[in-house]
Amino acid sequence: xxxxxxxxxxxxxxxxxxxxxxxxxxxxxxxxxxxxxxxxxxxxxxxxxxxxxxxxxxxxxxxxxxxxxxxxxxxxxxxxxxxxxxxxxxxxxxxxxxxxxxxxxxxxxxxxxxxxxxxxxxxxxxxxxxxxxxxxxxxxxxxxxxxxxxxxxxxxxxxxxxxxxxxxxxxxxxxxxxxxxxxxxxxxxxxxxxxxxxxxxxxxxxxxxxxxxxxxxxxxxxxxxxxxxxxxxxxxxxxxxxxxxxxxxxxxxxxxxxxxxxxxxxxxxxxxxxxxxxxxxxxxxxxxxxxxxxxxxxxxxxxxxxxxxxxxxxxxxxxxxxxxxxxxxxxxxxxxxxxxxxxxxxxxxxxxxxxxxxxxxxxxxxxxxxxxxxxxxxxxxxxxxxxxxxxxxxxxxxxxxxxxxxxxxxxxxxxxxxxxxxxxxxxxxxxxxxxxxxxxxxxxxxxxxxxxxxxxxxxxxxxxxxxxxxxxxxxxxxxxx
Amino acid sequence: xxxxxxxxxxxxxxxxxxxxxxxxxxxxxxxxxxxxxxxxxxxxxxxxxxxxxxxxxxxxxxxxxxxxxxxxxxxxxxxxxxxxxxxxxxxxxxxxxxxxxxxxxxxxxxxxxxxxxxxxxxxxxxxxxxxxxxxxxxxxxxxxxxxxxxxxxxxxxxxxxxxxxxxxxxxxxxxxxxxxxxxxxxxxxxxxxxxxxxxxxxxxxxxxxxxxxxxxxxxxxxxxxxxxxxxxxxxxxxxxxxxxxxxxx
Lengths: 481, 249
What we know:
The complex is a heterodimer.
Chain A: H1 2-12, E1 26-28, H2 35-44, H3 49-63, E2 87-89, H4 103-111, H5 116-123, E3 126-131, E4 134-138, H6 141-146, E5 150-153, H7 154-160, H8 162-168, H9 179-187, E6 190-196, E7 206-211, E8 221-227, E9 232-240, E10 248-250, E11 253-258, E12 263-271, E13 283-293, E14 299-306, E15 311-314, E16 317-320, E17 326-335, E18 340-349, E19 355-364, E20 369-378, E21 386-395, E22 401-410, E23 416-425, H10 428-436, H11 441-457, H12 462-475
Parallel strand pairs in A: 3-7, 6-8, 7-9, 8-11, 9-12, 10-13, 11-13, 12-14, 13-15, 13-16, 14-17, 15-18, 16-18, 17-19, 18-20, 19-21, 20-22, 21-23
Antiparallel strand pairs in A: 1-2, 3-4, 5-6
Chain B: E1 2-11, E2 14-24, E3 29-33, H1 40-48, E4 54-62, E5 65-66, H2 72-78, E6 80-83, E7 90-94, H3 95-109, H4 117-130, E8 141-142, H5 148-162, E9 166-170, H6 178-191, E10 197-202, E11 215-220, E12 223-228, H7 231-239, H8 242-248
Parallel strand pairs in B: 3-10, 3-11, 6-9, 9-10
Antiparallel strand pairs in B: 1-2, 1-4, 4-5, 7-8, 11-12
């Protein structure tokens, strides 16, 4: 027992591996938020008029809103006037080949273990790398263009396809949706845009790496994915962030629209800096992700592996409007040290015969707090709808917390909603069994945790699953209490 | 190979082992028998290094090393294998991954390079054939949903993969039907060499029809009260444990 406690201590006090800072020339506007700042952001990005109006409307609404306080989180007061709302690498943002990219940036990706040249060649992944807030390089654009797929930075999309943005932006997450979505709508700097035309299956996994790099820069990403009738796309989002002592605000919005029979898979591996072992620093991650299954028989699935951030507030949701549409949420959320996570999903059944599945695997270690919060709402018209929810919590040690907050509202009699929940601890017997086969306690815990999360990890695309397994191993390899 | 001298141990303040002495040499098979609660499983677990036990006195030497100083994983890598009475389930961890990690830890300890996936699968197939295992056990999660017999077969299979110097089989016969018992016993016999040794911990004589011991020890109330050759097991079977109890109350 003493040995295990010691090991728990050793392992769970490991410092974040990806804490480093890239020294790249950045264009920063003064900190603080006002209508002028919103105008300045829009001006710097040379946006069309409707975009500025969207931002200003959101800003004015945001002023009237309050930070949400219903989550099981202790959120220190955030001074929004102390945040910088825009930072773009000052060097010219567009390159034809990697040779032209700032060598230091390439070095950064190498440290992160995501060499983009390798990814281009080996994985066949089109990578739209977002360094701070502006897209630095976009690959595979030509291949995609041949299929009529648009995959580019949000800024580029605003210049080249303003009509699409105007039509769809805010459809899944209106500016008034919540405090952080309103803030994002007012000040978002960049993000990704993805459009899959009718009948097209995207031939590769689309991937974006986000990374916060400027001290004190809140990052406000905006992602919009539109899948037209009979189309398919798998989209990957992965994050690592450099070490910081001060808290950094991150409030992203992701919107997905799926039309008739379209399918969108959205996978995330989130590893923002979680703060040090004493709870100092770390990213505040307030994310609004929502997909709308507008079309009949459309499908949206969210798969997330959340290991980072000091505070995670995130509920990727599905609004199932089209008859026979399907929503899925698969989540592994791991917290260690003083991390806090309140994450889950909302499944809103509106169409007939709609189906949703929720699989949530929480893992808590150290002094962390990990909550699942999920809403399953079946509207009266959503006859013959089904939901199945499985929410499991795994505890490592006795100083962490795990909570489950399911909300279920069923508006008709023909629908079936099932909810299962379990809480368990890693068994000493399991660890001893591994030990007896020559496997160290540290490796045993990594193995057991990965086994526990396997159901969700299996939903990730292959190359991402490997990365996610390593992350789980690195992030805790905790112990028994 | 293994030398236990005056081993006394307790769990939660209760003394279970009250001075065990045992010598096991390479090539030998020892059976440790005794009624329930006599300390048989405690002895097996202590040799494997399970926490929860307090060593009060005595020493255990394994291949010249102080065994009690070693962590459970180092004991395993040094050649001690425990076939569990109740093998543990590890959901979501494929048996094949588990075994590969295990085999490669053992190789690393010996200064050998880890097996490649191809080499490992070859070894896996060879051992399956050797034990006449045609089951799909290796494709499932570690012990998850295994029947009692499958779990025990799986223990022997792991033993075959790891080729231990000293195998401790804790109640390997319990819960086995006669066919499963035969398969398990044949496996154990097939793995016997002049260089390794086996300790069979068992309640019944039945297993000893299949795996013939060189020595039989009777453990009662934390002490070895009687030792002898294989005929002792038969005598015990005939007279029952009361015979021991009556002589040692």
